[in-house]
Design brief:
Blueprint: H1 2-19, H2 23-31, H3 41-49, E1 54-60, E2 69-74, E3 86-96, E4 106-116, H4 121-141, E5 144-152, E6 155-163, E7 172-178, E8 185-195, E9 198-200, H5 210-215
Antiparallel strand pairs: 1-2, 2-3, 3-4, 4-8, 5-6, 6-7, 7-8, 8-9
Length: 223
């Protein structure tokens, strides 16, 4: 009997190690306090909402006419290499047309981490350098990316979308933005959706979790 278990245990160890090499999994683990890919979807959302380090929480519940929005500020958590004036986290539901055979559209979740610069020119410079540092690190994680300028009137900056082979929609976006808030923002977004009770990448092969790849209208609170 023990001989039968040994190959199974070996496979689980190999698959578990491979899952941790997935770029989206590694990226999320590097920057976010809560990782959507290591528990059920419901447990992940609850972990974010009940995080004891969060203050100034604001929540917009989902109704027939509105989508779910949650925003809060970390009291002490800071994954960055400098101290921003504020670090926020947000969960924002967004409508998206993912599949042609679903004209009603789908709902995805934007899992957002935001670092705010202080009001000095040095603060903005530090934030831009942090954007450059994070994108350099992320360039080594992902096989493909596309950088674009942000030019929407008063809102300007730069955005870099990261792609994986098994998803048509960029699962990760990193942005340096000015004009959206009183001070510049470094904004990191991971896109997920719920499949049953697990977090998966939108428009991925079979809507697959990053680990499983190895195994086999929108409101911002700026004040």
């Amino acid at each position: 009997m023990k001989k039968l278990y040994l190959p199974l245990i070996f496979c689980l160890l190999v698959l578990g190690a491979g899952a941790q090499q997935d770029p989206v999994y590694r990226f999320t683990k590097s920057w976010y306090r809560s990782n959507p890919f290591i528990s059920s979807y419901g447990a992940f959302v609850e972990h974010v909402l009940q995080d004891p380090d969060l203050i100034n929480q604001r929540k917009q519940l989902r109704t027939d006419s509105t989508l779910f929005v949650f925003n809060a500020t970390f009291a002490s958590y800071n994954p960055f290499s400098f101290k921003p004036s504020r670090v926020d986290v947000a969960l924002v539901e967004q409508n998206a047309q993912l599949y042609e055979d679903r004209p009603e559209g789908d709902t995805i979740m934007l899992y957002v981490l935001m670092a705010f610069a202080d009001s000095t020119p040095r603060g903005a410079d530090r934030l831009k350098k942090e954007y450059d540092r994070i994108t350099r690190k992320s360039d080594r994680m992902f096989s493909d990316y596309k950088q674009e300028a942000i030019d929407q009137g008063k809102v300007t900056g730069v955005s870099r979308n990261y792609f994986v082979d098994y998803a048509q929609m960029a699962p990760v976006t990193i942005e340096f933005v000015t004009g959206l808030a009183p001070t510049p923002i470094l904004r990191i977004t991971v896109r997920i959706r719920s499949r049953g009770n697990e977090a998966v990448l939108p428009m991925s092969l079979y809507d697959t979790k990053p680990q499983e790849i190895v195994d086999s209208g929108f409101k911002w609170f700026n004040d």
